[in-house]
Amino acid sequence: MKILSWNVNGIRAIAKKTFFKDLELIDYDILCLQEIKAQENHVTETLEPLNDYYIYSNSAERPGYSGTAVISKIKPLNVTRGINIKEHDTEGRVLCLEFELFFLVNVYVPNSGSELKRLEYRKHWDISFYNYLKEIERVKPVIVCGDLNVAHKEIDLAHPKANYNKTAGYMQEEIDGMNRLINGGFTDTFRSLYPAETERYTWWSYRAGVRSKNIGWRIDYFLVSQSFYPSVKNAFILEDITGSDHCPVGIILQ
């Protein structure tokens, strides 16, 4: 089974580019999307060419903002939206599909903001999301994928020293949130399989020349319950797929 995750930075915007051609090249069983920036009817309309797939979405109450969606060849046993905490469930950030052997949680973690105005909120979110994952993990193993909006270690961004404790995505509070997930029993699949791979990023600023020079951040992940990690055959980053400021990431299960 091949599962992918991609922050598309607007499903309607990327659909006007090479999105559908890229999907044919990628070949996938399940694709999780973040930052769809669309309501459910717009998602359905935009993804109409994929009528052979099961499509689910969780839109933000605020139009044109945030949101998650999943495109799947396999019908899930159950689909849930949000983490059942009102203050966290208005932005469409979590979409969970239950399959026979695992829960697949698609997440778009809140960004702390250019002026770090949401850093305190982000700290509360991280704790609530972790508790949610541990609760459902009591039932069966969990695969978490999406834009976690944090570079975990120095190897995960091009300029760590210049950004540490100054820039959203590399604040110690955000790193602590990722540490909580890792120490709490979730494995970072890509970094576990490729511990020494450098300059492997998933997000680049739109500023001119940044992506071509590969001045990026690895902030998109697949985390899995430790008990499920032996089922992960490979993890990968598809840097050559454009259309968004993020690129797709994925895992292959055996």
Could you walk me through the main structural features you see in this protein, from its secondary elements to its overall organization?
This protein has 254 residues and is α+β, with helices and mostly antiparallel strands. The chain has one domain (2-253): Deoxyribonuclease I, Chain A (4-Layer Sandwich). Helix content is 24%, strand content 26%. The chain is built from seven helices and 14 strands. Strands 3-4-2-1-14-13 form a six-stranded mixed β-sheet. A six-stranded mixed β-sheet has the order 5-6-7-8-12-9. A two-stranded antiparallel sheet has the order 10-11. A hairpin with a 4-residue loop joins β6 (94-98) and β7. The longest helix is centred in the middle third of the chain and has 19 residues, at 119-137. The mean pLDDT is 98.
Question: What is the topological layout?
Answer:
Layout lengths: L1 E6 L3 H5 L3 H8 L3 E5 L5 H7 L7 E5 L9 E5 L5 E4 L12 E5 L4 E6 L10 H19 L4 E6 L12 H4 L8 H12 L2 E3 H5 L9 E2 L11 E2 L2 E6 L6 E6 L11 E5 L1
Parallel strand pairs: 1-2, 7-8
Antiparallel strand pairs: 1-14, 2-4, 3-4, 5-6, 6-7, 8-12, 9-12, 10-11, 13-14
Based on the model shown, name its key terms.
single chain; globular; about 25% helix; Deoxyribonuclease I, Chain A; 7 helices; six-stranded mixed beta sheet; alpha+beta; about 250 residues
